[in-house]
Design a protein that fits this description.
single chain, two-stranded antiparallel ribbon
Length: about 250
């Protein structure tokens, strides 16, 4: 199955889409540069901005590359490459792929257990579940932008806006779900608690959280803002290293 998912035809299909998106990015970059020149911006400053943008785009993409590598073992290389190059997000793709795999009867994302039907279901859900951001933006962004003035007024008074609170609540729920599943996989009880599962996910989550906290401390308290670009990739790499050592 993996040989089929890595076949030249799949590479061609995914490669064409990625090339189109890359071409669009280049077109907008050139148009933005020309627009800056047209309004009288200093070409030297524009070139410095371009160089710094390239640098700070490469560093966070290390985490994305790790996601492609992690998913390629079970879904082949072209499909994760497409998903994480165009519109996908690392935490979203891995989560939905795992959930879809469980629903089609796979205990985990495994190359040996992958079937054409399972891959089709996983790929379909990974695509459909993330498209609503684009659709809702087309339908409701104009009305939302009109409300941003009032939103900024509330934020200027020292009170967090609804968007900030909703985002924090969403991530707390997401992290709680993951940690709850890790604890549930480790602990089972029938009158008396018995510990029989694998502690590795819990330890990896704790180590990754600690590393992320160190990055946040250094960037916010020590004013090393440039470290923010390394935070996701660094936390993932240290978490993976902890899993290997355990």
């Amino acid at each position: 199955m993996i040989s089929q998912l890595n076949s030249p035809s799949i590479y061609l299909i995914c490669g064409i889409i990625i090339a189109f998106v890359a071409a669009v990015c280049v077109v907008f970059m050139v148009r933005a540069y020309r627009a800056g020149i047209a309004i009288g911006m200093d070409p030297a400053k524009l070139k410095r901005a371009l160089t710094s943008s390239v640098t700070f785009s490469i560093l966070p993409s290390i985490g994305i590359l790790l996601g492609v590598i992690a998913l390629s073992g079970s879904l082949g290389t072209p499909w994760p490459w497409l998903r994480l190059s165009v519109i996908g997000a690392l935490h979203y793709e891995t989560q939905v792929a795992q959930a879809a795999a469980e629903q089609v009867g796979l205990s985990s994302l495994s190359a040996s257990a992958m079937t054409p039907r399972a891959f089709a279901t996983i790929a379909f859900l990974m695509s459909v579940c993330i498209m609503w951001g684009m659709i809702l933006s087309i339908l409701f962004n104009k009305a939302y932008l009109k409300k941003l003035g009032g939103q900024k007024t509330k934020e200027s008074s020292g009170k967090p806006g609804f968007g900030d609170s909703a985002m924090v609540a969403m991530f707390i729920g997401l992290v709680s779900t993951y940690i709850g599943s890790y604890i549930g996989g480790f602990v089972s009880g029938q009158g008396v608690l018995t510990f029989r599962g694998d502690l590795t996910p819990i330890i990896v989550a704790a180590v990754s959280a600690l590393v992320m906290a160190c990055f946040i401390y250094l960037s916010e308290k020590k004013h090393l803002v440039w470290l923010e670009s390394f935070s996701i990739a660094g936390s993932m790499l240290v978490g993976m290293l902890a899993a290997i050592l355990i």
